[in-house]
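User: I'm putting together notes for a lab meeting next week and I want to include a structural view of one of the chains we've been expressing. I don't have a solved structure, so I'd like a prediction I can at least talk through. The sequence is below, exactly as it appears in our construct file.
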Amino acid sequence: MLQVGFFRKVILTLIFVTLNSYVLRAQCPGPGPCAPGTFNNRYEQIDPSSIVGAVFCSGQTRTFTIGVGPGTLTEAATGDIEYITLFFDFDCDGVFEYSVNDSCSYVNPGGCDVGLSVVAPTVLAPTTYNARAHLVYNTATTDPCANLPGTWGDIIDFTITVNLPPDPTITSTDADDLICLGDSVTYTGTDGDEYEFYINGASAQGQSASNTFTTSSLFEGDVVTVRALDNLTGCDTFSSGITMSVVDPSISVQPIVSQTIFTGTNAVFTVGTVDVDTFQWQLSTDGGTVFNNISDGPIYSGSTTGSLTVLSVDLDHNNTLFRVITSNIAAGCLSETSDNALLLVKVARVITNRRITYRVKKN
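Assistant: Thanks for the context. Below is the predicted structure for the 363-residue chain, given as structure tokens.
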């Protein structure tokens, strides 16, 4: 029983240490405040609504728009230069190390704004960090508690929460990302509450709760991405892109309409194509009513290429028609058929008598 009690105490101690370690990771210890009364905010002061409740996303850049408004007793003059510096304790050691600053020119009445871009640290769990906004009139500072003699300023301590952004993926209904021009493709995004789809960086479907996007307007090399938004944290992230291969198979050069050759020679029919990966030559012996596929052998060569050769043509091929059916099988595109090409064959027997050559019909 003593051993059981001892181990129970050890386990409870480990749980307590673990929980406390998590709390320290989730909320950094706060740096010491500046001495009260050090800052004179009589003429200008920081607008607290512009910094309170700031939410960041792990590893991402966000911009603070810090407002400078009228002071507690009066208001700064037009043209007064107001410097705003933001300090952060991103390593959680209780000291402000990271700062960014810029200035604006005060407009009376009203004030001015300073935009400061901040890169959030990368976190593995939502973490809250301490921050300090420091306003000094006419002079920039790198000291989070500085108050130069004869100057005026303001200071506000606040926190920022760095949340985990979504980790979206995008998939399409076309597994190999190879389509025919005009084909419809549906894309699906994951890991968000709302989604916005982009083509080549331009929004193609506005942000909404729908995680699917369908289009038939893609071209070669178009890149489709999705931005997923987490409504709770306000964080969003772009997915990696899907690069589309879009083909538009077509016949660019038709076979020669008609050619005449002599028996015993070869006839060649050639077709020019774009985005074609499949050819099938066909033959008609009834003037084009019925066409049959041709296969390579002793009579034909290249029957499934862009160039068909009829070998050692005989009179049986006179007045026959040839055509080719083309397509892009890899993308599943519709086939296209070439124009008909007519083959005329003449007898090639030659008789020579006293240096005179005669061509006669074969019996």
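A couple of points you could mention at the meeting. The first strand starts at residue 44 and ends at 46. Confidence is low (pLDDT under 50) at residues 1-25.

User: Perfect, that's what I needed.
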